[in-house]
Design brief:
Elements: H1 2-6, H2 10-26, H3 30-57, E1 64-73, E2 76-84, H4 86-109, H5 116-135, H6 139-157, H7 164-195, H8 200-208, H9 213-230, H10 239-242, H11 248-256, H12 259-269, H13 271-274, H14 278-299, H15 305-325, H16 329-356, H17 369-372, H18 374-388, H19 394-408, H20 412-436, H21 452-467, H22 479-483, H23 496-518, H24 524-531, H25 533-539, H26 544-590, H27 597-623
Antiparallel strand pairs: 1-2
Helix pairs in contact: 2-3, 2-5, 3-4, 3-5, 4-5, 4-11, 4-16, 4-21, 5-6, 6-7, 7-9, 9-12, 11-16, 12-15, 12-16, 14-15, 14-20, 15-16, 15-19, 15-20, 16-18, 16-19, 16-21, 18-20, 18-21, 19-20, 19-23, 20-23
């Protein structure tokens, strides 16, 4: 057992090794590059399964930690280490399973891309960075891998850098995340200054006995800035929809198991800090709930299949963050796990459609895909049912636990908001399905089913989307909640009424989408006209991007004008002023050069007298 746990470092190391080998030696052999990348993740998955078996065979508080001193200086010591506990084990499984299936799927999706080898190199460093983040045992180490996740996402989002939209999206993601990361880094520095350590275990004990409420609020809010950026919470959400410019398998990885999951994982890992500040917990819950509703409302009217899924991810991330904020850490992590499987399924199925339709992404230019692409269609339907929270699929168990936690913890408004989001989620997902897969448009005539290398991962993920939720259900004695817990975390008792209500809301959303887009009992164009400005507001995403662009432009322009004035008036003024003063002094002194010896003698005597007076003043000052 100990030998297996001691090999935990191999899990993130192998993808980094694959990245280095592909980049340095194997980039001319695309198939070997892909095989090496897939092998590195496959070995990581096997080790993750073995580690999980050990962890979950033990008690709920099982922990394995090892660290080495990397830097030792007076007043500062830096450790590097590994932490294996139930939270780590779950994340290792989620990341390696999804990453492996995405990489296998990519063999078909990216097979004729000229950057095939580079793509797998970037996939390797992306997965390795996320796995390194998961096993880290301190905030300093997690920040290093946190930044590597951001860097590798930049490379993958901008993979097709020949398109301006891809380059712009990559820069937007990178810059937006730096805003949140700045706050995160400040929070880490405060932890080091105040507590003298960044180790999770040591901090847990130190924070528990710390009594300065203001400091805890400040530090926890700064730390939360990181997840706001990385998990695309309002107002730093704008990068995630544009990240769709990358290859679709990249979207599946970013939206399911890596980048956006990192923020939620950080909140769970540092839950002992956030939970020590009720004020911060309330802020987290409100931001999460608002993001869930905000993003779901935008998804209602989008027409791009990937953008619908992107705003769905934003909304579901809001669910997870809201769960953390109401104290239900286990519920948030449970939803992260189930969401990883059905959302990666949805993105990969969408990629299958896009691949078959020559990169078409507008759902209104698709139709009748269920006849030409049955595997893609029905796996997509399974993913949508899981996302909508239809029992007994995985999303039903995790979503209901979040809603129940919100209500049982006294946050009735957040429960109502979450229930509304559940209805909206079912509606916009089945709007997509009834238009793109079962609609009577002619856009899908040239479609064909994807090859087995792409459909087999869909089938595996569909199975996981069905059964993964059972680990947190009463059928397995809520095993997930038993293992994923912290002191102070909230675990509500089952409530069948809440389950029934949320299921009915999801069914109502599906029925409404069926009535409008399949049966056409209601003319959708008339609805758009009646909605008027509201439809345009939702379609243009509340004009948030335009507002940010206006603010940035005016801020930059205003700053530029201020710098111009400072340069001309202050810097140039000082330089030119010195030159002017020197010139005028020269002109003035020129008149003293009159060629009269008696004048020079007068100036000399005057100077001597002045020096004597100065000397006498100095002497008297010393004697006094």
């Amino acid at each position: 057992m100990q030998n297996v746990l001691s090999l935990s470092w191999v899990i993130p190391f192998l993808p980094f090794l694959a990245f280095a080998l592909i980049g340095l030696f194997l980039h001319r052999w695309p198939k070997i590059s892909a095989a090496l990348s897939i092998l590195s993740i496959g070995v990581g998955l096997i080790l993750s399964i073995l580690i999980s078996m050990i962890v979950f065979a033990g008690e709920a508080g099982f922990t394995y930690e090892v660290a080495v001193r990397w830097l030792n200086m007076p007043g500062l010591s830096v450790d590097m280490g590994l932490l294996i506990d139930p939270l780590t084990a779950v994340m290792l499984l989620v990341v390696t399973i999804v990453a492996l299936l995405v990489q296998v799927y990519s063999l078909g999706y990216m097979h004729d891309d000229p950057g095939f080898a580079s793509y797998y190199a970037y996939q390797s460093i992306f997965a390795g960075s996320m796995l390194g983040l998961v096993v880290a045992n301190n905030f300093g180490q997690i920040f290093v891998f946190w930044e590597l996740v951001g860097l590798s996402s930049y490379l993958l989002i901008g993979f097709w850098f020949g398109r301006n939209s891809a380059k712009d999206a990559a820069k937007k993601a990178f810059i937006t995340n730096r805003i949140g990361d700045f706050g995160f880094l400040l929070g880490i520095l405060f932890l080091q200054i105040i507590f003298g350590t960044l180790n999770y275990s040591e901090l847990a004990g130190a924070v528990a006995g710390y009594g300065n409420t203001a400091i805890l609020i400040t530090v926890s809010l700064l730390l939360f800035a990181g997840p706001v950026g990385k998990s695309a919470q309002f107002p730093l959400h704008v990068w995630l929809p544009d990240a769709m410019e990358g290859p679709t398998p990249v979207s599946a990885l970013i939206h399911a198991a890596t980048m956006v999951a990192a923020g939620v994982y950080l909140i769970a890992r540092a839950f002992f800090i956030f939970n020590a500040s009720p004020e911060t917990m309330l802020v987290i819950a409100i931001i999460g709930g608002f993001t869930a509703l905000f993003a779901a409302s935008i998804a209602l009217v989008q027409n791009d299949i990937k953008r619908i899924l992107a705003y769905s991810t934003l909304s579901q991330l809001g669910y997870m963050v809201m769960a953390m904020g109401v104290g239900a850490m286990a519920a948030g992590m449970f939803h992260l796990m189930t969401h990883a499987f059905f959302k990666s399924l949805l993105f990969l199925a969408a990629g299958s459609v896009i691949h078959a339709l020559a990169n078409e992404q507008d759902i209104w230019k698709m139709g009748n895909l269920h006849k030409k692409m049955p595997i893609t269609t029905w796996t997509f339907v399974i993913g949508a049912l899981a996302l909508s929270g239809i029992p007994p699929l995985s999303g039903f168990w995790s979503k209901d636990e979040i809603l129940l936690s919100a209500l049982a913890s006294g946050h009735t408004a957040l429960y109502i908001l979450g229930s509304l989001v559940a209805f909206m989620t079912a509606f916009y997902m089945f709007r997509l399905i009834f238009v793109a897969f079962f609609g009577d448009n002619k856009g899908g005539e040239q479609a064909h089913e994807s090859p087995a290398v792409m459909t087999v991962p869909l089938i595996i993920l569909a199975v996981l989307a069905v059964v993964a939720g059972l680990v947190g259900s009463p059928l397995m004695n809520n095993a997930f909640d038993h293992y994923i817990t912290y002191p102070g975390a909230f675990h509500p008792a089952p409530n069948h009424s809440i389950m029934i209500i949320s299921s009915l809301l999801a069914i109502a959303g599906i029925f409404l989408a069926w009535a409008i887009y399949q049966k056409k009992w209601v003319d959708f164009e008339r609805i758009k006209i009646k909605m008027g400005g509201l439809y345009q507001l939702l379609y243009h995403k509340y004009y948030i991007d335009e507002i940010y662009a206006w603010l940035i432009k005016h801020f930059v322009d205003g700053t530029a004008r201020l710098m111009e004035w400072f340069d001309l008036k202050v810097i140039n003024g000082a330089v030119n002023g010195i030159a002017w003063l020197t010139g005028h002094l020269g002109i003035t002194l020129r008149y003293t050069e009159d060629g009269q010896v008696q004048s020079y003698a007068l100036y000399m005597y005057a100077g001597i007298i002045i020096l004597l007076i100065a000397a006498l003043c100095a002497v008297f000052t010393v004697l006094a």
